């Protein structure tokens, strides 16, 4: 077995892995190694040829390949090494090693000072949501269809129904329309948009594509190929209302019904995973329960913007390098982030308190849409941070910053309430 040694080993060469690698090198790590299973760096961004990336981070509108390319070029210039076509088959956190297989080198044992998990996420499939009906050709996940069209120049259909209003689904609605296909409708089981509002405007509204909220596909019809679907409105328990069912003629169904962080490797290594995000539990340094293992990007929680992925991943790379060089500030204690009113999850789930004050950004998603709200953070019953928002939506990540010097007790609680509501933060 070939053995490789490095300071920081990064599993995944997408936007998260590339950002982490750049940050680790800039922090002073000597040898940084990216292990990527594809034949090129860039991850999912290689197939995202539409513009809209980098508006926050680069203050410019880039395509996915352009965004990834900037980091790939910087990583190369900094001396980041990579091994492509390499699949990780096991990770040993205590030993700080990762075992991978590669066509050129065979089985490789990579020994590192620290490890960064940046494996990204995958799409939920028809099997995950159990749609009744036959099993004909013409049913794709939105991402699979995107790869076929954008990277392999293969058209997937002519008359399309999209299930789910996730960002990839809405982007593919526009893409299919530009390729000459007819997108009959986008069907969403929830009574609110699952993706970004800007994607609804730019990808659906601008092209006159109908969005049916509180609806779902009840049956897929077809033998060799999809010939249509039945669609019905759902009640408040998300169950189809039979009398509202209608038949829609189509030859293709695209599924945009959510993403799942790629954490089989994480779980196999025995690292604690959050049941809501399905990603590893991390602190503000993106450090997992295994002290030598850090995690970032969509493997931790599914982000709405790649710019956010970059910011979080740079933290992971920076602190993974500090861990190796033993330059981290010593921790005094650790507290937990707790979800309050209308908050689905918070990341990071743990906050390390040190002797120095630190500003920590808490990212979170709400459970239901709301207008004119107050976002508050309380600690030991005392409000320590507060801000107003005109609108919050489950499809878009929100954040609020706190000062660690203000944290008392063992928990901090994030709540979202209508302006004027009592909420959880009664004390001042």
Structure report:
The structure is a single chain. The protein is of the alpha/beta class. It folds into 3 domains: 2-122 and 260-328, FAD/NAD(P)-binding domain (3-Layer(bba) Sandwich); 125-257, FAD/NAD(P)-binding domain (3-Layer(bba) Sandwich); 336-418, Immunoglobulin-like (Sandwich). It has 8 helices and 27 strands. The chain has helices spanning 15-27, 64-78, 126-129, 142-150, 167-178, 197-204, 264-268, 306-325; strands at 2-11, 32-35, 51-53, 62-63, 81-83, 86-92, 97-102, 106-117, 121-123, 139-141, 159-163, 182-188, 211-213, 215-222, 226-233, 246-249, 252-255, 259-261, 293-295, 331-339, 343-347, 350-354, 359-366, 370-379, 382-392, 398-403, 411-418. The strands form 7 sheets. Strands 1, 2, 5, 6, 7, 8 and 19 form a 7-stranded mixed sheet that branches. A 5-stranded parallel sheet has the order 10-17-11-12-13. β14 (215-222) and β15 form a beta hairpin. The longest helix is centred in the C-terminal third of the chain and has 20 residues, at 306-325. The radius of gyration is 23 Å and the shape is globular. Residues 424-428 have low confidence and may be disordered.
